[in-house]
Amino acid sequence: MAIGGTRRMVPRSEAEYMTAELTLRKCAICGMLDAQTRFRQTFAPVDGVALVNGYDVVSCNCCGFVFASGIPEQSAFDRYYREMSKYEYSQRNGRESEFDARRLDTIAAGLASRLPSTSLRIVDIGCASGRFLASLRDRGFGNIVGLDPSPACAATARRLYSVPVHTMTLGELAASGESFDVVTLIGVLEHLQDLDLAFEHLTALLPVGGLLYVEVPDVTTFADWSNAPYQDFSTEHINFFGPRSLMNLMQVHGFEPVFVEQNCREQSRRTIMSNISAMFRRESTQPASPTVRDQESVVGLQRYLTRCAVEDLLLKSRIDQLVIANRPILVWGVGTHTTRLLATSRLAEVEIVAYIESNARYHGLTLNGRPILEPTSLKQRAEPVLISSRVFQDEIVDQIRSDLRCANELILLYDV
Ligand SMILES: [Zn+2]
């Protein structure tokens, strides 16, 4: 899909995305269907683009892996990423955030220092803007290619960094017969519904001895970093790894750790993301059962749930104030933050006249019966704007005041 709205997305019915029956999901690591529900996350559906309206956060009673259960099949996620991708920077008029750029450069520098040769063939799965590969190329790695199912991402990677990109799925690349020395998965594994299938494809791309570099959020340290309550259970993140679960997953598929490191990544002016950086070597084609149970992920999850419960009370009291004020407002953002609040707080009782959203894929759609407008439409509006984001609160304020030059009253949910 072209950037800049040259082709409109045809709104799809919610039913089309939800045709797959929502079933209990077996543990992607040990394969058992024996999990304990720890939390229920719910979202109000955006018309036509609902991927999930909610899910249970569960922990496997056998191996300790924490994941989302009661979600659609992988094919629904594939379609969502192809059609609704926000990773090509359409929301910033094609510009990349300074934080994304810095984060990807940091990751590239770390990986480059660990690889034995600059001639290795490297493929980055879910390459988005291509910045990470460009940063590796700047460090002497010339044999690079990206893979992204979104044509918009591929176009962005070519436009911004002249990085070659295969516009296809992981399965299509695996079937092509190409093979690589290094496969990188940065912020990918937490999105995948069918991890068995993904590893079938990954092992087709990576011969024995090949290296797999992975970055995923770290559920054991979710509670250590400030974010909006329950924001780590987003509509897109459905696997919640701790270091042990990540190692168990890899072991099951014949990969042994080279290193596993817990660290953090800067996401915005206000937000640091918990993170695991790890490299694995493909040792065999023989699957092995996980040998060590993950004890830390559930402990980290419970710590996070306790923190979120407290912070959610404060957030809900601020929403209650908006209900009492009883005046028409605009809401900026239709992502996880807003759709969760619509489903779980009194936000739906506030007189919201319209939503403003940077991702062009949503323009022309509705949320709770109200239109989703593009940012420039704010110039014609006088209502106060509720900034429904903690991660990007500061950036949105800047966009409204500096880029759009709008003087609307701004309602912030989080203390600066
Ligand atoms: Zn398990």
Q: Can you give a write-up of this model?
A:
The protein is 31% helix and 21% strand. With 416 residues, it is an alpha/beta fold. The radius of gyration is 21 Å and the shape is globular. The structure holds zinc ion. Zinc ion is lined by residues 27, 29-30, 32, 60, 62-63, 65. The site of zinc ion has 8 residues, from loops.
Q: Count of helical segments?
A: 11
Distance between the termini: 37 Å
Would you count the extended β strands for me?
A: 17
Major beta sheet, strand line-up: 6-5-4-7-8-11-10
- Given as residue ranges, the uncertain stretches (5+ residues, pLDDT < 50) are 1-20
C-alpha-based Rg, rounded: 21 Å
The ordered string of helix (H) and strand (E) elements is HEEEHHEHEHEHEHEEHEEHEHEEEEHE
The overall average pLDDT, rounded, is 89
Structure ligands? zinc ion
Describe the largest sheet: 7 strands, mixed
Structural class given helices, strands, pairing?
alpha/beta
- Beta content comes to 15-25%
Shape type: globular
> In which range does the helix fraction lie?
25-40%
